[in-house]
Amino acid sequence: MNGDTVSGTGRVKFNDLEGGFWAIRGDDDRRYNPMNLPEEFQREDLAISFTGRIRSDMVSIHMAGEIIELTSIQRR
After folding, report:
1. What is the CATH number of the domain that holds 71?
2. Which domain holds residue 61?
3. Engineered SS bond to 12: which of 46, 51, 60, 64, CB 3.0-4.6 Å?
């Protein structure tokens, strides 16, 4: 549902499809397509914890998981 808040831990991953983009793979194997991943967190395999809102009202060509608008993120 649009706007659902999720939080979790995971790792930042770079996907080289469609010109390349950053994604989050949760430790629970859920995949997220962050729409606002800060540049300082754009590091391959960076361990993070995060909170955000699922944006099911948006679509992406990436097809790499649910689109998420991050509200907080930190390194683990």
Report:
1. 2.40.50.500
2. 5-75
3. 46
